[in-house]
Sequence to fold (169 residues):
Amino acid sequence: MVTWVTVARLGRTHGLRGEIGIDLVSLTPSDLQAIGSFTWRGRRGESRELRLVGIRPGGGRMIAQFSGVEDRDQAMVLTNGELCVERERVPDAGPGQAYTYQLLGLRVVDVGGRELGVVKEVLRTGAHPVYVVQGEGEILIPAAAPILKSVDLAAGVITVDMPAGLDEL
Fold:
């Protein structure tokens, strides 16, 4: 059975030649180039194959060019769609590393074993990622030492040591 993962979301168009920004990406530009082709899925359930022909940094994000997308109108159709790929085609993140899509849906517990919720989103900040954890309410947890203790992808659990009051903000 093929397992599909979402590796990025396409943002707004860039310029007039069909380029488009890539938001919420969990892979590096070289990882995306190595994969090369993706299935684009739109908000209304539509899909199409896209082949990456170029990627570059631009304004704090990545700017991509796909084969057959040659002007702003064609790129605009792709806005807010997701780039998906078969899980087997995603390069290994490396020892002690995880891609954003691997963290989504993981259970978050504190060092005492108390369930805090599940990771719904990972926010990118200048310093370190922040996990948006949905439980009884929403908690923002910095993914940095000394708060982040472990990420066990196999068990589906992230363990954190919450400072007093952080879960009440």
